Amino acid sequence: FFLPVTYAESRLSFEAAFLDELVVQGHLPGYRVALVNEQGMLAQKGNHYKNGIVPVEAIDPTSIVSLFSLSKPFTNLLALKLADEGVFRLDDPISMYLPAFESVKIHSDDDQPVLRTRQILISDLLRHTAGLSQSSDLQGWGPVAQYYRDNDIFGLNCLAGSSIENLSESVLRLTKAPLQTDPGERFSYSVGTDLLGRVMEVATGKTFEALLTKYIAAPLGIDTLTTRVSESNVERVVQLYEPMIKTYPVPGAYQRYQPFSKFEVDVINAGIQPGCVSPGSGLTASVDNLVTFVSFLLNDLRFADGTPFLSDSTLPLVFSGQLAKELGKSPMRRSIAYSRQDNLSMASLAIRTAKEGDLANPEDHDFYYWSGFSGSGLWIDKKTKTGGVFITQLYPSDRFLIPKLINETRANLK
């Protein structure tokens, strides 16, 4: 069903005029959207701003993009696979593999670190309940997030640095940072996925890149899924943009973006130069490879020959909420504004339930999704047995377009 997902003539009337309007108005530099069902491609289209002050290249099916937070579902699924194979258990303390985390303490405003009440578990890393933070230059906030930025812990300079850094070096700096909360106390979007990658390395004795290739990239045939773009593919990498404070007038509209300027080195995007390995934010892939991945999710994580990726006992963790009721009705809202009614699966798929729906009842799940810092996202809609990929490259992006894309798809299928 997915090797390859061919971009044939559209089988679904899908206009998504609101996307084109965002491009015309200068809010989006460009986009690519693709919709699939269980058999293959339903529709695909793209657009980009033309003839403006800032030149914009089209995003086509073979374009390679930096995934940023869209890296997380790949890494979490890899961890679930290793747990399935008995490499580790999800309730193992990470100190079994990284002893330095045995003694980590919680930040205190009075500079007297507080002892935590329990160990960080591997499952905490998948659920973002480990008490870790995100660097403040990747939308983390608070003193621990600032500490990450000051010490270059999985931030922008890490993703596009001037020298190669492996996971062990980055995690070593993380071991010296305090936690921002007690493990299990709350959901906090974090570098937990990066730390998860290092746990997998230690547990297997293999690099994260090797594990990603063996278990996901090679079996799915997605050859551009990597921590660093090969030299032969660099020309396919899409420019990353950022909002501009000053708007340049163009006839009829304003471009509200410019080439991204906050990397340590002069590059168009992350993943094409030396930098750190970041399982949580540093992967790259082509648009068509992402479509293949969504097809894989839509078909309950089965390969083309029907072989299941996960066991029957582990698969439910991919599509069920794993944030405890004790974390409140809106556990993710503090970290991710548009997720106020959502929960999170072990595969790093956010779960949106129908209004007044019961998270424990899969029939009440409206859709599953994940989104990256650049505005890109993917989704699975089991009600219509469809899925999709939306790709743009604007960081930070304040637009969450997945619900609108799902609604339009549903309307067109009626």
* Average residue-wise pLDDT: 91
Distance between the termini: 24 Å
- Taking pLDDT < 50 over at least 5 consecutive residues as the criterion, the unreliable ranges are 1-9
Provide the structure class.
alpha+beta
Q: What amount of the residues lies in strands?
A: 15-25%
What is Rg? Answer: 20 Å
Please tally the helical runs, counting DSSP H or I stretches of 4 or more residues: 10
Number of strands: 11
What features would you describe in this structure?
By secondary structure, the chain is α+β, with helices and mostly antiparallel strands. Helices cover 24% and strands 15% of the residues. It contains ten helices and eleven strands. The protein has a seven-stranded antiparallel beta sheet, sandwiched between helices. It has a two-stranded antiparallel ribbon with strand order 3-6. Strands 4-5 form a two-stranded antiparallel ribbon. A hairpin with a 3-residue loop joins strand 1 and strand 2. The longest helix is centred in the first third of the chain and has 14 residues, at 71-84. The radius of gyration is 20 Å and the shape is globular. Residues 1-9 have low confidence and may be disordered.
